[in-house]
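Why do we care about 3D structure at all? Because function follows from shape, and shape follows, mostly, from sequence. That is the central idea of this module. The next example makes it concrete: a single protein chain, its amino acid sequence, and then its structure expressed as tokens.
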Amino acid sequence: MERSIGIMVCETEGEPPFADKSFYAKLCAAGEALDVRVFVFSPGRFDPASRTVIGYSFDCTEQTWVRRKRTMPKLIYDRSFYPDNSRYVSHRTAVHEMQRLSPVRLLGRALSGKWEVQRSLSADPLLKPYLPVTEKLRSIRQLEEWLNDRGEAFLKPDAGTQGKGVLHVYRCEEGLYRMNGRDRDNRVVNERFDSLTALLDNVNRRTKGRQYLLQQYLTLASQSGEAFDIRSLVQKDGTGRWQLTGMAVRRGQPGSVTSNIHGGGVAEEPLPFLQAEFGYRTAQSLALKLNDLSLRIPQTLEGHYGRLAELGIDLGIDRSGNVWIIEVNSKPGRTVFTQMANERAAVSAVSNPIAYARFLLDSATLIRPHWPMLKPQASRKP
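And the structure:
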């Protein structure tokens, strides 16, 4: 029996018509090594009459992409990032049609927005203490009350990625306010306001038409003032078990409120960084806690969402050594491991999804597509 998996993507201009070609080429190479046929496709290329799809596989010998009509794979690895809601709806409709005509299944389910993930995690009493106070932003009046009570707040899009659209707003002195962060195009935001009304008007314009979360602001910065967090990648392996593939510190540029690599951040090994920041003994304790949380979170979320395949978990540590769960996503990037030259983690990060796919194909333990009404996700580089 031929094993096959299709990498589902959003189509772009060019040939082949998708971004992140080097990542998908690595997935194809991993498939060749594991005897799994891997190809990349867009649902828009599905032909219901023949039940085939135009797919692209990477020829590792010739180092070139090969375009070919393919029978539908039994398993789909969803790496689609939707630039708008219409693209999401068209993908969902096409996959429903595929599923109606052929036995299409997903490698793992997708998580919903940040708010629903936060609620799922907070239902676990072991995880709740590590979650910052968070509310849905329902009105600008709500933000005004937060600033009056707390003096500062952190706002982030419910469906955002790469640190786009995140804002730190705060009272800096009597009658004066500041806003730092990133706009929707990931450009740096650094503004000053002479009144609370002016600040609130600006926030209202920036958040209009999007669902935002209002969150307790955490001082997650190094001794030198650089924002940092910990990216943990957990994946299921070829035996169907969760494993901690790797962990990296992401350090932001000076003055940035985010540490995201796409915002100019850099990646480095976590333990030496933690030892320099907190001392040897505390660093060892923090590393154990980060590991424990990384393996607890997927078990908790599977209890709410069903089977998952991989998660990118962002964890923060404040200056008092408290660990915080910042956010979790089910379509994680892998750039951090390449940037810090962690070859073992970089290789495993690519091979694990294919090894897990082979495990599912061999055991015939597949799941039907699940399409909650999500807001579109911006593109994320691997």
